[in-house]
Design goal:
0% strand, single chain
């Protein structure tokens, strides 16, 4: 019984940790490296990421629920800065944790 519980904990932790690797970084979107993500950069990076996942045969559940540029540009200045991006990532991690724990 102890082995089963330990194995479940190890596998569960690995799955949860692995989910974090799927989250893109700021630099994945800020392709010109100027410290700001424009709508064009955002849309191109998002499209490239989805294409890469599809080519790898990964399931694309919730692709229709992907964040939009407008959702992430919370101050409506036409760019996503690091604080807006970080806030969004934290919200996504929290949502993932809630759905895992349900």
């Amino acid at each position: 019984m102890k082995r089963l519980t330990l194995a479940s904990l190890v596998i569960g932790s690995a799955l949860i940790a692995g989910m974090g690797f799927n989250m893109p970084s700021y630099s994945d979107f800020d392709t010109d490296k100027n410290g700001k993500i424009t709508q064009t950069e955002f849309e191109n990076a998002q499209k490239a990421r989805m294409t890469k996942q599809a080519e790898a045969g990964k399931m694309m559940r919730n692709a229709g629920n992907a964040p939009t540029f407008k959702n992430m540009d919370t101050n409506n200045d036409g760019v996503i800065d690091t604080s807006e991006f970080s806030k969004h990532q934290q919200e996504q991690r929290a949502k993932m944790g809630q759905s895992i724990n349900k």
